[in-house]
Amino acid sequence: MSFEDGNHVWGFSTAGRIFFGWGAASVLRNVAQEFGPRVLICTDQNMVKAGVCETVVAQLAEGKAEVNIFDQGQPEVDRQTIERAAAVAQAYAPDVVVGLGGGSNLDLSKAVAILVKYPGPLPSFYGENNIPGPIAPVVAVPTTAGTGSEVSPVAVVADPERAMKVGIASRALIPAWAIVDPALTVSCPASVTAHSGMDALAHAIESFCAKVRTDCSPHAIFVGKNPMSDILATKAISAIAKFLPTAVAQPKDRAAREEMAMASLLAGMAFSAAGTATVHALQYPVGEATHTPHGLGNAVLLPTVMKSITSSRIPEMAFIARSLDPALNSKSDADAASQAAELVEKLGAKVGIPKGLRALGVKKEQLPQLSKMASTVRRLLDNSPVPFDESDLLRLLQEAF
User: Fold this and answer.
1) Are residues 197 and 167 part of one domain?
2) What are the pLDDT digits (tens) for 243-255?
3) How many domains in the chain?
4) 39-67: buried (b, 16+ CB within 10 Å) or exposed (e) per residue?
5) Together in a domain, 173 and 201
6) In this prediction, what percent of the chain has a pLDDT beyond 90?
7) How many Å apart are CA 261 and CA 250, to the nearest integer?
8) Do 241 and 342 have their domain in common?
9) N or C: more exposed end of the chain, with fewer CB within 10 A?
10) Which residues of 135-147 are buried (b: 16+ CB within 10 A; e: fewer)?
11) Residue 6 above 80 pLDDT?
12) How far, rounded to the nearest angstrom, does the alpha carbon of residue 284 sit from its chain's CA centroid?
């Protein structure tokens, strides 16, 4: 876990305020006083049917908020949904946008908060640092433990015109408030808990193993592996290794839900500084091609990518392996590191993650095109400790198939 010689300057930022704990959703009654009375909630029908949205509205109303609800959020939110929500927002002119639900709803709220302030079109904001200034304030209320979007500077959009997911990355997107209430995750189905938890693990591992950068611009969003991100990532890895199977198998286990909510938050802060890398670069086209959950795709791809970078990250891989199997504490770093990818795959299998891209619906003939598309996501690939070109990415996809 040491850093290469040379100048190592890094920066760190996170949500303006983080509220964490069982019952933290009660903080919502202070939103109107803090940001103004006109509140737009971006959520989905599942949150409405589960009664979660009603609970949130009641808390907001207690604080004298006027609430408008856009409840047509979609898994892996697409550009069309964002533009529909933005039309509602522009007509309503909210003081604050509340994102309620999984990562897609939080990303929806961020994108809407951009379009409240700037007319767009949405693709003009794709990439890094293309938002011209502050957006409408966002209060992020996650109901899954995985994406870390409540503290991240990123919104991911499925854009059919691009045939792949694209990212909007800017520190302007970091929510003003992140309200992380583990009680809101209890109603998650087992599959969502598993996919989200493995997503958080991918965030923690990729940030922990990211490239060390020596050039830190004040405008840099992702600064590579650094001491702060390592502290956050290792805490997240340890908690996920211990508590994810329990959260999946025993959804009402309070300790497991709290630990996974914290792990997701920590992993979100870790990758929001260090950045993610090859797993996410590959998942962008894979996810769009298969319309499968982001965390599921990351979970399937993660072991293969880990194997390919193990030799360059022996201490980190040894830590990951020992977190998953304490019996490896007596082994050398090299011996432990060699088992890290396999142990992550076993953890995935334990919580219901299928093996191989074939199980997601990927066809073998699609692999060359998927690798070509992934090779364009340089902002992520350049964060890898091992360089990958298009042919390398094709090999990884073939190995993961």
Assistant:
1) no
2) 999 999 999 999 9
3) 2
4) bbbbbbebbbebebbebbbebbeebebeb
5) no
6) 90
7) 15
8) yes
9) N
10) bbbbbbbbbbbbb
11) no
12) 12
